[in-house]
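@channel anyone free to eyeball this complex?
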Amino acid sequence: MSETAATATTAVTEAGETEPTVVVDEVSKHYTVGGQVTALDEVTLTLPRGSYTAIMGPSGSGKSSLLNLIGGLDTPSAGHVAVDGKPISTASENERAAIRGTDIGFVFQTFNLMPRLTAVENVALPLVFDSWSRADRIDRAVERLEAVGLGDRTDHVPNELSGGQRQRVAIARALAPDPALILADEPTGNVDTDTGATVLDIFDELHAAGNTILLVTHERHVAERADRIVHITDGEIGSIEATGEA
Amino acid sequence: MDGREGLRIAVRSVRAHKLRSALTVVGIVIGIASVITFATFGASVQAEIIGDIGDSNAGNIYVFGTPSDDEGFDRVLQPVFTDTDLAAISEIDGVTAALPRGSIQVSSIRAGNQTLARSQVTATTPESITAGSTVAGRSFTSGDREVVVNERLATGFRENLTTGSTLTLLYPDGEERPVTVTGIVNGTRGELPVSNFARQPRLYAPVDPFYAAVVESPSAGVRQRAYPQITVVSDPRQTAETREAIETYLADDADARQLSASDTELVARSGSDFIDEISDVIERITRFVTGIGVISLVVGAIGIANVMLVSVTERTREIGIMKAVGARNRDIMSIFVIEAALLGTLGSLLGVPLGLLVGRGAAAYADVTFALAPDWIALAVGVGVVVGIVAGLYPAWRAARIDPIDALRHE
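replying in thread with the prediction:
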């Protein structure tokens, strides 16, 4: 963990305290499914550097759409999104891929590990597409796996790991490129309560080390781990609630 | 992403589906193997025949009748070339020897108490047997009951024939004629290269007294022996001119012209014509087999494309994961193209040795020396790789276009 802390803090100092990690500016997203569906309606949201934000909302509220836009997996119908100062909403497909690979770390509910790759290869995967040398990739991946307590599981494939271990591999992968932002989509949704608690403890540690985290959940107790909770209903931000810890 | 990593991913994917991959490359294997088989077999036959002709038959001109619509070496085996024709051709400038060739109808040959059927018995003159092709003994003498046998016949009996052995020729009408073997040869200079290639047991006997086909010569007005074929040995430096002179004679003055049916063309073909002819036949067959090979490769390519499409669907989620962690469209594309190219390469790497093996078997069966065709092997491997890449392009393009959000939701 100490490694991550050092690098993340450096980034903050260099970029200046004033520039937020994520700026979402009047973003709308419409889909055409039969008729036109508005998933997000002029949403504006800022994630300051080093902040820990939870997004809550019922299913179909637009929280996944917001996550996809911030993560650069999708582009808005209107408005702008910037991550670490980079205008991800207007970037080309290739540029967005590069930003996803270097500036954003995804943690998914279903882990989304490559089934035929070992833990260390899974963690190193983002670095493959960022043209790191094999030796450097492996070094970094082993480091990250050790940081999440899986230093002894580097050569296991996902099948040979428990749910909690798989989610920790996924977190290690998200951390591999030293991203400006960690995006977590229901990270405790597919693990039991105890394991979920361990996963959330890791996020707490990452937050403490200076990382910026955005977490989507529908569970209140999970959301309460964050500094603040953004409630989304019908594609609009209903309220922003500061938790006691903030 | 560097190519090595792409290859590593491809190898892993192919190894994860060993049976599927093996079945996928069967089309490529068959395509490449059939092309290689015929390329090597054709090269072997060609090398053998050119070797045969080059050795001792460079100045040979083969005179025979052929159906007028035929460009090649199809022969009409009617005895039309009379002794008068033979004498006239011998007189043509540049002709060293004119050797008549006729076949004698013998039902079988007996040595001791063993009988051998189906031997080719050829009537010719003593000059057909040259020192260069004689293994043992000497040529027969005209007018004597002497014969020469080829090695295949000499070793065809329980006890090998040697010079001085006595044989009995059995005729269809029941007549038996004892003969003495005076020599053993591995070919004669009167033979068409193609008959040498067949390597049947053969026996050669003097025209006098063994050859019986007789017709009335229109020019001489008397009954004479007549032969279906004459081999002219010419001075190799003026074979072309000699050949022209022979053809002029055949067209204008020959008895054979009057004795032949009107749709029979009398021709004089040289060894180089023969090489051209054989090369042409081999080239035509090669083209045909290559055509089959190409069809097989197309089927193989469709097979690869099909499996790659299935693979893309199966790995939709993996594609989504890779895109989420920074893979660009061209990274995804190259992963699948490399995998398809790997399948094509595997197919050709299996097809080449298989083709060589079958080609070698065919060469052994046809009794020709096996010759490699290195250009074809290099080409085949190249084609395999290219076929794989082409087959992989569309599936890879589909893979690259997959939307990461949909892909991550894909079960």
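from a first look: Chain B has 14 helices and 15 strands.
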